[in-house]
Structure formats: structure tokens, C-alpha cells
Design goal:
single chain, five-stranded parallel sheet, 10 helices, 5 strands, globular
């Protein structure tokens, strides 16, 4: 081997550990986009309980084994930065703004869970709104991938909102809470008929099918946490504060089911 080739080879070999070390020193950024579920709303106390979020929660006692906590454990001494841009009441049209803030942190791993506030405002003529939802979600996913072609995205469908209704309908006091808080009126309002509730279930299922279809378009970067749809919630997994959002146990179940779909 000539002197020049030997020098080039030595340079490459010396450079490899340097590159690996630089990668380890770069923070691994875990981001969350979405609505109240990802903000841990009413999981234990009224309002945001971000430390109990299924995706980004890092409560001191480890009550929720969130995606962020699991990734921190798996990556060992790698610096993991967690950014939760989800907020209560968010709808799909607000995703681009959430994503813009997150992208400043150069995320490596992103969870997206949004749609409950969309579908809970739709009526029978919902197809145009579903198209807007599809456009917003697709656009954000493409923007995130464009910013980092190696990014990992976990796309979460909506948990069974109809099951939330079934659990709450037989619990004393839940109906009055739903009516007072005006929670998901197309499904939960007292005056809704069985037919109207069934129509809502159809819209909910259509939304989740669209989420699954979008995930299938980006197999390299996106994983669908499909098991969430059939999550077997029980009374202890629903917040007693509003009979709708996941409790700490419910957040933990969502994390467990959705993390099985990831790369880790």
C-alpha cells in the first residue's frame, strides 16, 4: 500500500471514534405534539399534569413509564432533552405552530397524538373537516421528516372515546360533569340519542382510519401505535375529575401499548 493510501486510511480510522463521540455528546431530543392527553390533563389534579404524560412525562416517582423515561434508560449516559409542545384543546390546525417550536430543538424522536378535539366538534357533514385534518397532519409529518430524514415519529390514533362514554355512563356523577364541562358534546351530552352517539362512533373510526393511512405512507420514519385503539381501559384508568381523560394508570397503559410499536 502506498504512503498516500496509508495516510488516508489512518485518517479515516482516527476520525471514526471522533464522529461516534460527537454523536454521543449531541443531545437526543424527544418531542411531543398533540392535545390534552399528551399534556397529562387531569391525570391526578385539575389542569395539566405534564409529569404524568404518556409520552414526555418524567415524574419523580416513576409512576408513568413514559416514552421519554424509557428512552433515557435505553440510551444510558446520552443526554436526553424532552420537549412537550402539546396543550389542552389543541386541534389539528394548530399542529404546524407546535411543530415549528419543536423543530428549533432538532428532534430525533417525536410522538403525535391529536384528533379528539377535532372529532368532538364535527357533525354529520364532517368529510370536509376530515380532509383538513388529513392535510394538517400530513403536512406536519413531512415538515418534520424534511428537517431530519432520520427522525423517528410515533403516530398515535385516538383511544376508544366510545369506551370512555361506556365507563362514565355507569359511574355516578359523570354525566353532570360532562354537561357542566361541555366535554365532547356530540357523544357525551345528556340529550344525545343512541343514533347520534352511534354516528359519532362512525366519525371516530373514520378519523382513526385516516391516521393509519397517513402512517402507512412514511414507513421509514413513522410507526403507528395501533394497539391504543383497542386499549382495555377500566374505571381506574379514567380521571375521576372529568370521567374522560386518562388517569395516571391510563397514561401508563397508553405508554405501554404505544411503545411496543416503536424502534426501541
Amino acid at each position: 500500500m502506498g504512503f498516500l493510501k496509508s495516510k488516508i486510511l489512518v485518517t479515516l480510522l482516527v476520525g471514526l471514534p471522533t464522529l461516534a463521540r460527537a454523536e454521543r455528546e449531541e443531545p437526543y431530543v424527544v418531542g411531543a405534539l398533540g392535545d390534552s392527553i399528551s399534556a397529562g390533563f387531569n391525570a391526578l389534579r385539575f389542569g395539566d399534569n405534564r409529569e404524568f404524560s404518556w409520552t414526555a412525562g418524567l415524574d419523580a416517582n416513576g409512576l408513568v413509564q413514559s416514552h421519554a423515561r424509557k428512552i433515557k434508560t435505553l440510551l444510558g449516559d446520552r443526554n436526553v432533552v424532552v420537549v412537550n409542545e402539546a396543550f389542552v384543546g389543541a386541534e389539528s390546525y394548530q399542529l404546524p405552530r407546535q411543530a415549528a417550536r419543536l423543530l428549533r430543538q432538532k428532534p430525533d424522536y417525536v410522538t403525535i397524538a391529536i384528533g379528539a378535539n377535532d372529532v368532538c366538534t364535527w357533525d354529520e357533514d364532517y368529510l370536509p373537516k376530515l380532509e383538513h385534518y388529513q392535510k394538517h397532519l400530513t403536512g406536519v409529518i413531512e415538515t418534520i421528516i424534511e428537517s431530519n430524514p432520520k427522525v423517528k415519529i410515533v403516530l398515535a390514533p385516538m383511544p376508544s372515546i366510545p369506551l370512555m362514554y361506556e365507563l362514565g355512563a355507569r359511574r355516578p356523577g359523570c354525566q353532570s360533569k360532562w354537561d357542566t364541562m361541555r366535554v365532547c358534546k356530540p357523544l357525551l351530552a345528556a340529550e344525545r340519542t343512541a343514533e347520534q352517539r352511534q354516528a359519532f362512533v362512525g366519525r371516530y373510526r373514520h378519523l382513526n382510519q385516516v391516521i393509519a393511512d397517513i402512517a402507512g405512507r412514511y414507513p421509514v420514519n413513522v410507526r403507528l401505535a395501533a394497539a391504543i385503539v383497542n386499549a382495555e381501559f377500566d374505571d381506574s384508568m379514567i380521571s375521576p375529575l372529568d370521567c374522560f381523560h386518562p388517569s395516571i394508570k391510563g397514561q401508563n397503559l397508553i405508554s405501554e401499548l404505544s411503545f411496543d410499536a416503536t424502534w426501541y
